[in-house]
Design goal:
This protein is an alpha/beta fold and 245 residues long. It has a single domain, classed as Rossmann fold, CATH 3.40.50.10900. It is 34% helix and 27% strand. It is built from seven helices and twelve strands. An eight-stranded mixed beta sheet has the order 1-3-6-7-2-8-11-9, with helices on both faces. A hairpin with a 2-residue loop joins strand 4 and strand 5. 46% of the residues are buried.
Length: 245
């Protein structure tokens, strides 16, 4: 059974914008989520337990304490929270995970922002970003001036499953889709997600220049993870719907 185990009960969270960072195409969601945690000096709020998640324990450099591979972080002053994952999440685990998260969403009145990349070969053109929504999430997209999708498509993997769950439950949710490198980690696309999507929606200001300045370092750090993701069916991605027509 899924549950959220709070590890820092001194953190008070009220009506946060919750950014989901599951690994996917270009690792854009994970790169963006990891950067938000670091840039806003977010605190580890809770561990997420789910029997369908990989049975592993995570440790950090210079820190002896173990954590679960899926965790919640919070920056109370910014009204921002992040769902961070160090492992691919099988879509079969999402129903259990969603049941757990929905209870927490209701408790703190959170609005989730789900992140996905759509594969595009890199060129000199900046990556395009667009948004999708359920419930009243469309109003947030409009207020943030996030563009509508230029074509029909679908979001798969754990992010697609969570968006489908929000649609079924009639909950407010936002999905951000950014063009990203289909073969390698894409810090530039993650930067676009943060500056043109997450910050306007959450009302935050995130320093993100380092994502591009350190692109080579970030790509190398995430390369092996990306290779595992390419071999997995658990990767979050958006795809043009015409592929299936």
């Amino acid at each position: 059974m899924a549950r959220i185990s709070v590890v820092d009960d001194t953190i008070e969270i009220d009506r946060p914008t919750l950014v989901e960072g599951f690994p996917g195409v270009g690792l854009v969601g994970k790169i963006a989520a990891d950067h938000l945690v670091e840039a806003h000096e977010m605190r580890h709020y809770a561990n997420v337990h789910c029997e369908d998640l990989p049975p592993v324990a995570v440790y950090r450099e210079s820190e002896p304490g173990l954590t679960t591979p899926v965790r919640l972080y919070a920056a109370p002053d910014s009204g921002l929270a992040v769902l961070q994952s160090d492992v691919p999440v099988n879509p079969s685990a999402v129903d259990d995970l969603a049941d757990c998260l929905v209870g927490w969403f209701d408790e703190v009145d959170a609005v989730p922002v789900y992140l996905s990349g759509i594969g595009r070969e890199k060129d000199e053109t900046p990556p395009a970003l667009y948004g999708v929504a359920t419930g009243d999430g469309g109003e947030r997209l409009a207020d943030a001036s996030v563009e509508d999708p230029p074509e029909s498509g679908l979001v798969s993997g754990p992010t697609g499953a969570l968006l489908a769950d929000a649609l079924e439950r009639g909950r407010d949710a936002v999905g951000l889709v950014v063009e990203s490198d289909p073969n390698f980690p894409d810090p530039e696309a993650a930067r676009t997600l943060i500056l043109d999507g997450i910050d306007p929606i959450a009302g935050t200001e995130t320093p993100a220049d380092g994502l591009v300045d350190q692109a080579t370092e970030i790509r190398e750090a995430k390369r092996q993870f990306a290779e595992r993701m390419q071999q997995s069916e658990e990767s979050t991605q958006a795809e043009p719907l015409k592929m299936y027509q």
